[in-house]
Specification:
The structure is a single chain. Helix content is 6%, strand content 32%. The chain is built from one helix and six strands, in the order αββββββ. Strands 1, 2, 3, 4, 5 and 6 form a six-stranded antiparallel sheet that branches. It starts with 33 loop residues before the first helix and ends with a strand. The model has no long low-confidence stretch (mean pLDDT 86).
Length: 119
């Protein structure tokens, strides 16, 4: 009885011609210009009614879950009623020069210890 048919993985003791090649990791993207990206796409991070002021960004860090980048964005915001919310910090995910996602940071997020520069 045959134990299995097909190709062996890259660690099996088989001739090289029968082994499945281990895939190469995807190359990293070039680090994005976070200042320019956020300045030109504020609406990708903040709602229009929040009237962001004093917008600051951190340096991009490689996203450990992919080939893109993550950065932190901080600004003074207002509520939809116009009342000051104070400084809010968001983590943004960037891929191919596009802000794909953003989320408000939580108390244990490393965005709270990043160094920021104004846009």
């Amino acid at each position: 009885m045959l134990g299995g048919c097909g190709l062996a993985d890259s660690h099996a003791v088989w001739p090289e011609a029968l082994k499945v090649k281990a895939s190469e990791p995807a190359p990293l993207e070039t680090p994005p210009d976070v200042k320019h990206l956020v300045a030109s796409k504020l609406d990708s991070v903040f709602t229009a009614g929040s009237q962001p002021t004093h917008v600051r960004v951190s340096a991009p860090l490689h996203d450990p879950q992919g080939t893109g980048w993550i950065a932190c964005v901080r600004a003074d915001l207002n509520s939809v009623l116009g009342k000051p919310l104070g400084t809010q910090t968001y983590r943004v995910s960037i891929s191919n020069g596009i802000i794909l996602d953003r989320r408000l940071v939580e108390a244990d997020d490393n965005c709270l210890t990043e160094t920021y520069s104004p846009i």
